[in-house]
């Protein structure tokens, strides 16, 4: 039995080593291909030309290319965030927004969009306001779930649900007080998830945060493997469980907060991408992190293409499509998990 397990682990490791460069190559081709599609279709050559010579077509360079890049960064960030959350609660059904991070970010960002409360932040006002909301939410949830120096996972989840509902209520109250119909429409569209506001100057922050979090989690991939087995097993293996839990909460909050601040709420990506990654590579987190990031990036990039072309020239919120895709996947995962328990 041990030999069989070792053989499977070896195959998964080798498969992951092959899969990562393959997915990276697919993503590299997908970015310019996705930039070609939309209400107006461009050729592949036009997109590549605009990338190296912005004056060739400013519309492609200023709008299409930043949009697909932001989609890739958002998808990868949500996927990595999903991996962190699933390790934290030791459940593959966990989602990045389970702790109410998206609700807190949406509440503060909506407050700024409609009333300009955080205008003093300047260019990055929306990013900073949403991150403040995410940070405040996670701090409240964290403070409610710590007992005797340890994080109580059931309390963490329940606190997340309660605080999320409170923040959603706050968002509803803010939108009801909207000073004008246009501002309300823009805020509602943004909360449903959209990449329409993508600009070159917005890409630096999510790229830096994603790189930092991937490096941190990658350096601790063995501790993630141990923590997935349970707190007692992880402690036996020499892992500082509380320290790792705090690190995972910080990483998840950072990734979800920054992503929500730029794209609104894009649900289920953090659930689907890690699930696909584990199906392809097994449970070891070293390949899972990278495969999840690449799967998440591809998922958001191509879902955004659908959002642009299904009812062109009108555009669907990307969060609506990811919810329609993610719902059946979530149901399948629940049934699969239930089937395993019955066995």
Your description of this structure?
It is a single chain. Helix content is 77%, strand content 1%. The chain is mainly α and 343 residues long. It has a two-stranded antiparallel ribbon. Helix 3 packs across helix 9 and helix 3 (58-89) runs antiparallel to helix 11. 45% of the residues are buried.
Helix content: over 70%
Protein structure class:
mainly alpha
The number of helical segments is 14
Kindly report the spatial arrangement of strands forming the biggest sheet. 1-2
Provide a compact summary of the structure.
The protein is an all-alpha fold. Helix content is 77%, strand content 1%.
Layout of strands and helices, then pairs:
Blueprint: H1 2-36, H2 44-52, H3 58-89, H4 101-115, H5 125-145, E1 146-147, E2 150-151, H6 153-176, H7 181-191, H8 204-219, H9 221-228, H10 231-236, H11 241-263, H12 269-281, H13 285-309, H14 318-342
Antiparallel strand pairs: 1-2
Which features does this protein show?
single chain, 343 residues, 14 helices, globular
């Amino acid at each position: 039995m041990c030999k069989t397990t070792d053989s499977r682990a070896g195959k998964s490791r080798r498969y992951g080593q092959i899969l990562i460069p393959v997915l990276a190559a697919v993503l590299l081709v997908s970015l310019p291909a996705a930039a070609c599609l939309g209400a107006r279709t461009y050729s592949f050559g036009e997109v590549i030309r605009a990338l190296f010579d912005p004056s060739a077509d400013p519309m492609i360079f200023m709008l299409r290319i930043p949009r697909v890049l932001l989609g890739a960064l958002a998808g990868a960030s949500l996927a990595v965030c999903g991996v962190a959350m699933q390790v934290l609660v030791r459940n593959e059904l966990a989602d990045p927004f389970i702790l109410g991070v998206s609700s807190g970010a949406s509440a503060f960002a909506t407050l700024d969009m409609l009333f300009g409360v955080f205008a003093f932040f300047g260019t990055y006002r929306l990013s900073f306001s949403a991150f403040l909301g995410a940070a405040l939410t996670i701090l409240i949830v964290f403070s409610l779930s710590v007992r005797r120096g340890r994080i109580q996972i059931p309390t963490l989840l329940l606190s997340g649900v309660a605080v999320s509902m409170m923040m959603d209520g706050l968002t509803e109250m803010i939108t009801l007080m909207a000073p004008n119909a246009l501002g309300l429409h823009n805020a509602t569209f943004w909360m449903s998830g959209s990449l329409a506001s993508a600009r070159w100057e917005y890409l630096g922050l999510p790229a830096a945060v994603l790189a930092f979090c991937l490096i941190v989690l990658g350096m601790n991939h063995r501790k993630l493997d141990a923590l997935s087995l349970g707190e007692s097993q992880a402690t036996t293996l020499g892992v500082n469980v509380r320290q790792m839990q705090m690190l995972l909460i910080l990483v998840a909050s950072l990734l979800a907060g920054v992503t929500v601040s730029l794209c609104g709420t894009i649900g289920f990506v953090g659930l689907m991408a890690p699930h696909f990654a584990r199906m392809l590579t097994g449970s070891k987190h070293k390949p899972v992190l990278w495969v999840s990031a690449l799967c998440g990036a591809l998922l958001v990039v191509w879902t955004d293409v659908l959002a642009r072309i299904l009812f062109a020239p009108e555009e669907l919120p990307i969060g609506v499509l990811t919810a329609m895709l993610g719902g059946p996947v979530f149901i399948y995962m629940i049934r699969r998990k239930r089937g395993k328990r019955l066995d």
